[in-house]
């Protein structure tokens, strides 16, 4: 059968058989639509943003549009560029000597490189009614008077880096943005970042020091590298209800978090200095690095019931209202060290079979049972990192072990509350030989992180 390819303004007819009835050209279609026919019906499909087509579109434009770099120092220069080019092949930089209050991209639709606007005390608003794509990084930095960003057609950029914009409070972008490789928003006056709500995958998602930001809602599924949220509004609530996988997760200074579908953390999971009372990550299965729950002063309930393996260390420290460390019922193996410190009354790890690092457990509670950690089964401990040190308000016990978990030396001390006298047999040295390791002592925060990153293989 003979096939025609006809191009008509505003409509593309592709692979249409001769003799087939076509829609009337009077029927208005969006300029960004493709009309396709098959054996039974006509389909109208949106045309995806095609970088190659955008590049080709510059070939018919003036030479200025083909330059690799445009350094703009005035609104007049920018107006000259946008009046001649709908697409530029290179990057655009608004220089620090730009004295006008408005940056207007006018008729410019596409930038093949990046856009950088920085170090100008005069710029108040940035606009561009037609700007759709920035294929490089969109950088806004150190703009102390900047208030408003208005790009209603904007749908794509490789990366967003918005930093040191202390009164930046209004942003309008197309709500159909679904993919940005990196998102960094720091030190702004934004109250929300809903313009990025529909993004489903990114490499870096870093939101920090935005003092008026009270909600982060995102439908993101995958974060290939880092999720970092800290130092925003005191009552910040984070809702990432679709997040399944992340490499590194660090949450600080938040009032609520919601990760109901999170299954995989490919390196570290750190929850530090937050004010929420509950942490529910009940679908989390693996942590490939360190688990850290530190200085969460209101935290009382944690659910990690599906977590079976932690490839790094475990640090649970100074969560002052957490009475029981019993939220890892199916955890079987820890490949790093253990560091527990706080007011907790009990620990319970019914399925734990192997800890490759050392163990330091300290509580101010009299109810803590250190025997759970210092006992041996079949003459071997589950701790294989050389040392166990367990301290409660009543008793302290230290155990040295060999590579196989066999006890080499024990020392036990009772802490009598009524007198300074020590009880009979409070110190027992079963063997005098030293082991190769050292008992974990209380450390600074940096030291704790370092210790838990160690994998103590023999």
UniProtKB/TrEMBL annotation:
Gene Ontology biological-process annotations: ascospore wall assembly
GO cellular component, one term: cell surface
Lipoprotein recorded as keyword: yes
Receptor L-domain domain location: 287-342
Superkingdom to which the source organism belongs: Eukaryota
Membrane topology per record: Lipid-anchor; GPI-anchor
InterPro entries assigned to the protein according to its UniProt record, in alphabetical order: CWI-Assembly_Regulator, Rcpt_L-dom, Rcpt_L-dom_sf
Localization: Cell membrane
Record key words, sorted: Cell membrane, Glycoprotein, GPI-anchor, Lipoprotein, Membrane, Signal
Keyword tRNA-binding attached: no
Family annotation (Gene3D superfamilies): Receptor L-domain
The family this protein is said to belong to: Belongs to the SPS2 family.
Protein name in UniProt: Receptor L-domain domain-containing protein
Organism, as annotated: Naumovozyma castellii
């Amino acid at each position: 059968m003979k096939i025609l390819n006809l191009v008509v303004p505003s409509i593309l007819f592709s692979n249409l058989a001769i003799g087939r009835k076509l829609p009337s050209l009077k029927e208005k279609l969006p300029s960004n639509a493709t009309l396709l026919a098959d054996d039974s019906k006509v389909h109208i499909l949106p045309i995806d943003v095609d970088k190659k087509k955008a590049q080709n579109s510059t070939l018919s434009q003036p030479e200025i549009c083909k330059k690799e770099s445009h350094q703009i120092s005035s609104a007049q220069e920018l107006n000259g560029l946008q009046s001649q080019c709908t697409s530029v092949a290179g990057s655009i930089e608004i220089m620090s000597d730009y004295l006008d209050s408005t940056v207007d991209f006018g008729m410019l639709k596409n930038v093949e490189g990046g856009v950088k606007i920085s170090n100008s005390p005069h710029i108040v608003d940035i606009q561009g009614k037609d700007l759709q794509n920035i294929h490089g990084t969109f950088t806004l930095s150190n703009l102390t008077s900047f208030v408003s960003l208005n790009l209603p057609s904007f749908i794509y950029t490789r990366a967003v880096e918005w930093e040191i914009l202390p009164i930046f409070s209004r942003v309008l972008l197309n709500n159909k943005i679904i993919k940005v490789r990196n998102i960094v928003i720091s030190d702004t006056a934004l109250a929300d970042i809903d313009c990025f709500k529909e993004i489903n995958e990114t490499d870096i998602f870093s939101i920090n020091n935005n003092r008026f930001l009270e909600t982060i809602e995102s439908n993101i599924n995958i974060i290939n590298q880092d999720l970092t949220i800290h130092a925003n509004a005191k009552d910040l609530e984070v809702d990432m209800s679709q997040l399944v996988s992340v490499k590194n997760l660090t949450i600080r200074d938040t009032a609520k978090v919601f990760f109901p579908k999170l299954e995989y953390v490919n390196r570290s999971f750190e929850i530090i200095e937050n004010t929420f009372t509950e942490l529910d990550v009940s679908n989390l299965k693996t942590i490939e690095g360190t688990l850290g729950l530190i200085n969460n002063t209101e935290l009382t309930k944690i659910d990690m019931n599906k977590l079976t393996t932690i490839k790094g260390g475990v640090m649970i420290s100074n969560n002052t209202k957490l009475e029981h460390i019993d939220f890892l019922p199916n955890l079987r193996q820890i490949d790093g060290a253990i560091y527990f410190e706080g007011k907790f009354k009990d620990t319970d790890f019914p399925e734990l079979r192997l800890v490759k690092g050392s163990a330091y457990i300290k509580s101010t509670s009299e109810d803590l049972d250190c025997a759970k950690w210092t006992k041996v089964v079949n003459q071997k401990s589950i701790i294989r990192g050389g040392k166990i040190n367990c301290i409660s308000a009543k008793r302290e016990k230290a155990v040295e072990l060999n590579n196989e978990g066999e006890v080499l030396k024990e020392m036990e001390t009772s802490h009598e509350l009524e007198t300074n006298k020590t009880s009979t047999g409070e110190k027992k040295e079963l063997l005098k030989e030293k082991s190769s390791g050292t008992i974990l002592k209380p450390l600074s925060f940096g030291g704790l992180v370092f210790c838990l990153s160690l994998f103590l293989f023999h």
